[in-house]
Design a protein that fits this description.
Layout: H1 5-18, E1 30-31, H2 34-38, H3 46-51, E2 65-67, E3 77-84, H4 89-101, H5 112-119, E4 134-142, E5 150-151, H6 153-165, E6 176-182, E7 187-188, E8 197-201, H7 204-207, E9 212-217, H8 224-227, H9 250-268, E10 275-277, E11 308-309, E12 315-316, E13 318-319, E14 325-326, E15 331-333, E16 338-340
Parallel strand pairs: 1-8, 3-4, 3-6, 5-7, 6-9
Antiparallel strand pairs: 2-10, 8-9, 11-12, 13-14, 15-16
The structure holds 2-acetamido-2-deoxy-beta-D-glucopyranose.
């Protein structure tokens, strides 16, 4: 998703034209580039640099998002949460509420469910769309770090394998998506450097099944300026003020948007053979990659776009359940062929 130079140059162009500051969170979320890594030099960080210009609100003609014949998650989606490491309940609640809001019609517009409805515009060759129904089916808690406080990418799959083997989560083919959420102190390979989250599918040799999954980490203690933008901004963006997080925790509120990013891509490209741009399936540019850093109308090139503020000055663009508010990046709409969110002004 980060190796197609021609696509990246096309994507870079609008940013250059805007003469904007470089965007901080390279590779905020991405399909697991394990395969890509085999063909790139170890320690090669150009991916993070290039992906930094990979989002903008605009022109349809430059983006060739294509369908590659694989399935999307068209059955009602059962999310299985794996809380890895010591997670205070107060930090879990906004993340859980966000996921539960994705198919909750009650909150007023612009709502999280309306945000998901752009993801549900994607369909596969059977004519089935991504499901509007997203449920949190079960949760596993692993506060004592059974695989250690520092996970490799493959160890994330082993955490899932453990949960399935222990019977704490079921094997749910066709409907299940497994989300590994690492606590503030847990480090993950490439976290903060090349990724803030990733999604992929599990290998039968490691897990016994092919199941779509994603990892997202709490970056608050590690790299909020990289992974919790715009609630923290890197020093080179001096002059751009950090926004106040709507749920009061920079790491959690930043994680909500990365989680949304990964889930949108997981649903539309669960086996990395459905919706993505670029010719290289080992480096796909997916529907949320195209809109990284865009949260409202006019967004792009280091500007979030127009978002709202609550009475305490905290920024948000979505309403959710329990009166919660969230700030979540937009995703690419196959209908308007631009980044889109329910707080769009037109
Ligand atoms: C399903 O996808 C098609 C094609 O993008 C879209 O026109 C339609 O509105 C979608 N249906 C729902 C229920 O979202």
């Amino acid at each position: 998703m980060i190796c197609n130079l021609s696509l990246l140059l096309l994507l870079l162009l609008p940013t250059l034209l805007l003469a904007a500051s470089p965007f901080p969170h390279g590779g905020k979320g991405k399909a697991d580039p394990q395969v890509a890594r085999m063909s790139s030099k170890p320690g090669d960080d150009s991916s993070g640099l290039l992906s930094s210009s990979k989002r903008y609100e605009g022109s349809s003609d430059l983006v060739h998002l294509r369908y590659h014949m694989g399935p999307v998650l068209s059955s009602p989606i059962n999310l299985y949460l794996i809380w890895y490491g010591p997670w205070p309940a107060a930090l879990q609640a906004p993340l859980r509420d966000f996921l539960l809001s994705l198919s909750d019609p009650a909150p007023p517009p612009p709502s999280a469910a309306q945000w998901w409805s752009t993801v549900a515009l994607y369909s596969d060759q059977t004519g089935a769309n991504v499901s509007h129904r997203v449920a949190v089916a079960a949760e596993a808690h692993l506060p004592r770090l059974p695989r250690g406080a520092s996970l490799s990418r493959l160890a994330v799959q082993l955490v899932i394998a453990d949960a399935l083997a222990a019977g704490s989560l079921p094997v749910d083919h066709g409907r299940g998506a497994y989300l590994v959420l690492t606590a503030p102190g847990v480090t993950v390979q490439d976290f903060c450097r090349a990724a803030c989250g990733f999604h992929y599918f599990t290998f039968p040799s490691l897990v016994g099944h092919t199941l779509p999954y994603a990892w997202v980490g709490h970056s608050g203690l590690q790299c909020p300026d990289v992974c919790a933008y715009p609630f923290a901004v890197p020093t080179y963006m001096a002059g751009v003020g950090a926004m106040r997080p709507p749920n009061g925790d920079v790491g959690v509120d930043g994680m909500v948007s990365v989680l949304a990013h990964e889930l949108a891509e997981l649903a539309t490209n669960p086996l990395i053979n459905a919706w993505y741009a670029g010719e290289d399936p080992t480096a796909p540019t997916e529907i949320a990659d195209l809109c990284e850093g865009v949260y409202g109308s006019g967004g792009g090139g280091g500007y979030t776009g127009q978002v709202s503020k609550d009475e305490l000055g905290r920024s948000y663009n979505l309403n959710g359940r329990n009166g919660r508010r969230f700030l979540v990046q937009w995703v690419w709409s196959p209908v308007v062929k631009a980044c889109r969110g329910p707080n769009a002004l037109d």
